[in-house]
Amino acid sequence: MLAAIDQIQKDKPELFDLTSRSPQGWPLVKDMAAYQHGVIDILAGQGFCGRFDGEEIALKRTNDFTEHFDVNYQDKYIRKGSGIYRGACYPAAF
Question: CB 3.0 to 4.6 Å from 22: which of 10, 13, 26, 79, for a disulfide?
Fold first, then answer.
């Protein structure tokens, strides 16, 4: 997940405002939907199936389980590090 966040920052720098940052130093996201869907698209290219549920991105490779990630902070900034992983659901949530 963190590699996908790094990748979208490289691939689509226009989605981010590097002059506005969270207290942790994470950049502001100008288009949150494009950011979330872009992360999902990158992970889909790696064999994952993903969905954004309005709060978190849920990822799976099989229907056995999903892992859930909160990739934005305060609905304004990217999120990395502590707090990004929210948990798993058995069986898969979708």
Answer: 26
